[in-house]
Amino acid sequence: MNPLHRTPVHDVLDVGVRAINGLLTVGRGQRLGLFAGSGVGKSVLLGMMARFTKADVVVVGLIGERGREVKDFIENILGEEGAPARSSWPRRPTCRR
Q: Could you write out the DSSP letters of every residue in 4-67?
């Protein structure tokens, strides 16, 4: 799909982090990349945004992360709401309630 044919983002998404909402506003349906050096709090910020975003479903892609780091992120940062899925697994819905 050509990215230029996507519908424009019009609605603001409340990500639950006041600094992001005020300075780096995110739109509903927008893709977001988070890039920074090691040890600066990317996982903590990503976890806060995933937990406190006012949305029914939040999809987080941890591209290039080791399995140990993904497990730590899901267990310690996301908590019980986290539902892992790997790209090598067959496609099926994974949701915990």
A: GGSPPP-SEE--S-HHHHHHS-EETT--------TTSSHHHHHHHHHHHSSSS------TT--H
Tell me which residue of 92, 93, 94, 91 sits closest to 82, measured CA to CA.
94
Say which residue the tokens 């986290």 belong to. Answer: 82
Whether this model's pTM surpasses 0.85 = no
pLDDT in tens, 15-59: 999 999 999 999 988 888 888 888 898 888 988 898 898 888 888
Read off the tokens for 33.
């990349």
Distance CA 10, CA 1 (A): 20
Closest CA to 61 of 95, 84, 39: 84
49 Cβ partners below 8 Å, 6+ apart?
15, 16, 17, 20, 58
